[in-house]
Amino acid sequence: MKIIETTNISKRYIMGEEVIDALKSISISVNKGEYVAFMGPSGSGKSTLMNIVGCLDTPTSGQYILNEQDVSKMSDDALATVRNKEIGFVFQTFNLLPRQSSLENVALPLIYAGYSKADRIEKAMLALKGVGLENRAGHKPNELSGGQRQRVAIARALVNDPSILLADEPTGNLDSKTSYEIMDLFDQLHSKGNTIVMVTHEDDIAQYAHRILRLRDGLVESDKINPDVRKAK
Ligand code: ADP
Ligand code: ADP
């Protein structure tokens, strides 16, 4: 089943006199359960594509169907509703609330989703368990290592059971040992059926994905199954 389907999407930025075609004509599809890396050099359009795929922005032209919904021309409000339901974001900088515990950080998306407090705690604990941090529920971000912080962020991204885990340079702030731990966690999440889209400029990190899509100058340069998937364990 297709989760992501874009047809000839483009994105044009106009800055004064300058016209930048960040994406020219991108047609891609991602099935449920796939683990894909979006790669490419700086300026190739990765962030622009991720913002569109993640419903943070809409394309200038073309169509984007996300989980059977046409989100290409949605209003910002409608887009936000789809985004909160369908997308779990993970960032390079973790973006955790510093004064809140792991449990509270993970439970946050459930407040917006309207769950009762008891349900929020139960679901957040389950999500923490899923990333191996049930024994760190009461810790605040500054009481956790970098890898643990990223695992809390991953639990938060997954707590609402999104269609896609969208990870933007998820190991960008981590040392190589901790990066492997996060890639091992992604392997486990992929095995459990999660759909993962990871944006990275690092070749060795992209090698953990089962499919690698390379962008260059706003176009898809290649889109291939990765024959030598690297395993973190
Ligand atoms: P990448 O993530 O691969 O580095 P980006 O998607 O950030 O690439 O950028 C693609 C192109 O679009 C670049 O030329 C960049 O300068 C331009 N660009 C990105 N975002 C904006 C913006 N908000 N306004 C104007 N130009 C932008
Ligand atoms: P790592 O070796 O994984 O980078 P650390 O050496 O930073 O982790 O921390 C070891 C353990 O101690 C971690 O599991 C973390 O939860 C806990 N810890 C680290 N700093 C603090 C702190 N300031 N207060 C409470 N617990 C902490």
TrEMBL record:
<dbReference type="GO" id="GO:0005524">
    <property type="term" value="F:ATP binding"/>
</dbReference>
<dbReference type="InterPro" id="IPR003439">
    <property type="entry name" value="ABC_transporter-like_ATP-bd"/>
</dbReference>
<keyword id="KW-0813">Transport</keyword>
<dbReference type="InterPro" id="IPR017911">
    <property type="entry name" value="MacB-like_ATP-bd"/>
</dbReference>
<keyword id="KW-0067">ATP-binding</keyword>
<dbReference type="InterPro" id="IPR017871">
    <property type="entry name" value="ABC_transporter-like_CS"/>
</dbReference>
<dbReference type="InterPro" id="IPR027417">
    <property type="entry name" value="P-loop_NTPase"/>
</dbReference>
<dbReference type="InterPro" id="IPR003593">
    <property type="entry name" value="AAA+_ATPase"/>
</dbReference>
<keyword id="KW-1278">Translocase</keyword>
<comment type="similarity">
    <text>Belongs to the ABC transporter superfamily.</text>
</comment>
<dbReference type="Pfam" id="PF00005">
    <property type="entry name" value="ABC_tran"/>
</dbReference>
<protein>
    <submittedName>
        <fullName>ABC transporter ATP-binding protein</fullName>
    </submittedName>
</protein>
<keyword id="KW-0547">Nucleotide-binding</keyword>
<feature type="domain" description="ABC transporter">
    <location>
        <begin position="4"/>
        <end position="233"/>
    </location>
</feature>
